[in-house]
Amino acid sequence: MSALYEQGTPRAEGYRDVEVKALAAALDSARRVDVREPSEFDGILGHIAGTELVPLRTVEEAAARWPRDAELVVVCRSGGRSAKAAAQLARQGFSRVMNLSGGMLAWNEAGLPVAREAPEPRLTVKDVLDTLSARTRELGGELPAWSGPPTHARLLSLLEQVQAPGQVAVRDASAFAQVLRECRDLLAVARAEASAG
């Protein structure tokens, strides 16, 4: 077993969770498979260079050709879909499967290198707050009052707070959920050093 697999946290489903910094230090030690959709792979969060795109719905078919004893790291946006894929692969007999904990959100927030088709967005945390406020107003809602400078931690806390049902009254709860998801992605690529002011 490699150091990367050994560093992973064992899960009852038969795979291990690995942290982004551990993967970044051992990129060549395991095959990487991203189970998001193509638009996400090339979207704002980008992907880890050298990672193979295998959308979740096609993993089972693609995995039929992979060696069962090879180390495999599964990646998605936040770690949810990749955990499902990792569990599925473990059930299929893969013995060294890992899930990237926190997915591409965590990878971006750690400031690790990202491959993407578009140029890297140059966003501040204030830009993300302004976007969230404007899009919430478009849906007929209003965010809780905000005072003080916008920081990554405070905006992340706000996103988690308003995600709970009934916290913000809007015309379309589904559209608002999508706004929150998009703003969470934007926040992941907003650099801390760019957020002051």
Description of the structure:
Helices cover 42% and strands 10% of the residues. It is of the alpha/beta class. It has a six-stranded mixed β-sheet with strand order 1-2-6-5-3-4. Strand 5, helix 5 and strand 6 form a beta-alpha-beta unit. Helix 7 runs antiparallel to helix 9 and helix 8 packs antiparallel against helix 9. The longest helix is centred in the C-terminal third of the chain and has 17 residues. The C terminus is likely disordered.
Please provide a brief summary of the model.
The chain has helices at 3-7, 20-25, 38-41, 59-63, 80-91, 103-109, 125-138, 152-163, 173-189, and strands spanning 9-10, 16-18, 31-34, 52-53, 72-75, 97-100. The protein has a six-stranded mixed β-sheet with strand order 1-2-6-5-3-4.
- Say how many strands there are: 6
Helix content: 40-55%
Biggest sheet strand line-up: 1-2-6-5-3-4
Count of DSSP helices?
A: 9
Low-confidence parts, pLDDT < 50 over ≥5 residues?
A: 193-197
Key features?
197 residues; alpha/beta; six-stranded mixed β-sheet; 6 strands; 42% helix; elongated; disordered C terminus
